[in-house]
Amino acid sequence: xxxxxxxxxxxxxxxxxxxxxxxxxxxxxxxxxxxxxxxxxxxxxxxxxxxxxxxxxxxxxxxxxxxxxxxxxxxxxxxxxxxxxxxxxxxxxxxxxxxxxxxxxxxxxxxxxxxxxxxxxxxxxxxxxxxxxxxxxxxxxxxxxxxxxxxxxxxxxxxxxxxxxxxxxxxxxxxxxxxxxxxxxxxxxxxxxxxxxxxxxxxxxxxxxxxxxxxxxxxxxxxxxxxxxxxxxxxxxxxxxxxxxxxxxxxxxxxxxxxxxxxxxxxxxxxxxxxxxxxxxxxxxxxxxxxxxxxxxxxxxxxxxxxxxxxxxx
Length: 314
Known about the structure:
It is built from ten helices and twelve strands. The protein is α+β, with helices and mostly antiparallel strands. The strands form two sheets. A seven-stranded mixed β-sheet has the order 7-9-6-10-8-11-12, with helices on both faces. A five-stranded mixed β-sheet has the order 1-2-5-3-4. A hairpin with a 4-residue loop joins strand 1 and strand 2.
């Protein structure tokens, strides 16, 4: 069975589709700006569970995942549309009002206007379809395809927290005080729009993607699009410190490499770690190599091939 990415790749090649392959579609808008548009679908019991996510948190996350795609292009969000297929029991519970409260609170924070969408009934499950549009200076969107051998690899923030939060929710350990921050990272992620804008303005990022499926998978997308390989230093990964109270070293590393949903930014650039640290809060984790499609992980003095093990729908 093909993965979702293999299916998309085959569809693109078969029909000659030329604008597919990044976090957003990039469309010419005028002489000064390009339009970037993204679409995301969240399905109950696949992408979220209502028994641990409040409607307000769900509204926040539904927008946040799309805003993260906008950030990955170095763009600024402007408008959004959200469509929902709602089961009868939720329609009659007042949950939809809470959903929009969470959605609109995050939208106001980033100046995003809700301009439309659709609401339909369903026998279940709850399905949310999110579309967000934004702008970026003409020809300046940061694509996945710009990495070159010798580029340094960076990641913003910390990794593994959202995956750890999910594991605690699944194990019904969400009431532990030390779990609150990583559970929050899972339920209400923060899109890295401010850092993205800085990277776009400075102009030294050669490629970028958001960490949604997991570092191993998302770096794999960059390598595939750019026709390169990568070398990652396990000891340099910024593993979320809040995982230490709940998980051992091997499990923490696994979450940082493959967990996903941290929605941090993974990017490459020609700058050295020292000069980058002066302008952007990010961690140098490796280098781009010329070994096409091969990601090498250096851990404990040993080297191994890092296979993409992030989230897959199929």
